[in-house]
Amino acid sequence: MFKRILNLIELLIWRYRTYGVQSAYIAMKTRILNLYVRLVNKLFLPKLTCPCCGWRGRKFYYLDCGWFIVPEVECPSCHAHERHRLLSLLFERIPPKFLQTNYKEIRILYFAPEPHFLKLLQNYSNIKTTFTDYSPSAIFNVSPPKFVADIHALPIADNSFDAIICIHVLEHVRDDRIALQELNRVLKPNGELLLMVPFMMDQSETIEYGEPRPDIFDHVRGYSPLDFKKRLLSFEFDEIKGDSFLIAEEVERYKIPDSQIVYLCRKKLQ
Ligand SMILES: [Zn+2]
């Protein structure tokens, strides 16, 4: 208990010194709100389920996003977020083609791997995953094959991969249109790109910040769900939301908000 309080004080001092009083206030407020969530989960009957770990409870944790707080995001048990819950359910109910092909080796290129998603891929013995990121630390904990690369100029031949997984990456890159061209180039003609970006639901158009914003996880742009698809002109794609394949009661039970959208893209063939 004493150590946890000490850690919290250290965090608050760091946030205050690095980002100012508003950011320190948000860090403090999130922790207080999550104490309330823990109490609610102890006192009330469960209404929610985490499909990633089976946890059942009344409320998911609030998420500290630096300058603002998002409710009902994190599983108190496995720490999965909304996107992990959506993908876990999607893979179970209507898996993409690359997960249904079990008679041959499937080569996947995976940007910025996340533990929750890696767990989902572990069940497929014919999948050979290559990991990549521009930062060595992002692929430090995963097994080879892996390489550090710039998504704007991938050191990979055309038509190399059966699938590409690119989740919450494009909001960090200098030019996302060039990055998407590269993903299109290295994807096999019948391959699939599994793409997700965070959406700013209150924006009618995507905003370029010009430089990484430390108050929003160093994002360089804030995507609007209304114009994001214009960036996918070189692909054919399915736009998959929670209510595309879940009934309303499940969307509520798994807490999948409208902001979570999977784009399953295929190369447009000439
Ligand atoms: Zn969980």
Question: CATH homologous superfamily of the largest domain, by name?
Answer: Vaccinia Virus protein VP39
Task: Tell me the number of strands.
Answer: 13
Question: Which series of helices and strands comes N to C?
Answer: HHEEEEHHEHEEEHEEEEHHE
Please identify the structural class as seen in this structure: alpha/beta
Strand content: 25-35%
CATH class category name of the largest domain: Alpha Beta
Instruction: Describe the strand arrangement of the main beta sheet, using strand numbers.
Output: 7-6-5-8-9-13-12
Ions, cofactors, ligands: which are bound?
Answer: zinc ion
CATH topology of the largest domain: Rossmann fold
Main β-sheet description: 7 strands, mixed
Helical fraction equals 25-40%
List low-pLDDT spans.
none
Number of domains: 2
Provide mean pLDDT, rounded.
Answer: 94
Radius of gyration, in angstroms, nearest whole number: 20 Å
Shape: globular
Quickly count the helices.
8
Give the distance, in angstroms, between the N- and C-terminal Cα atoms: 62 Å
- Architecture of the largest domain, CATH level 2? 3-Layer(aba) Sandwich
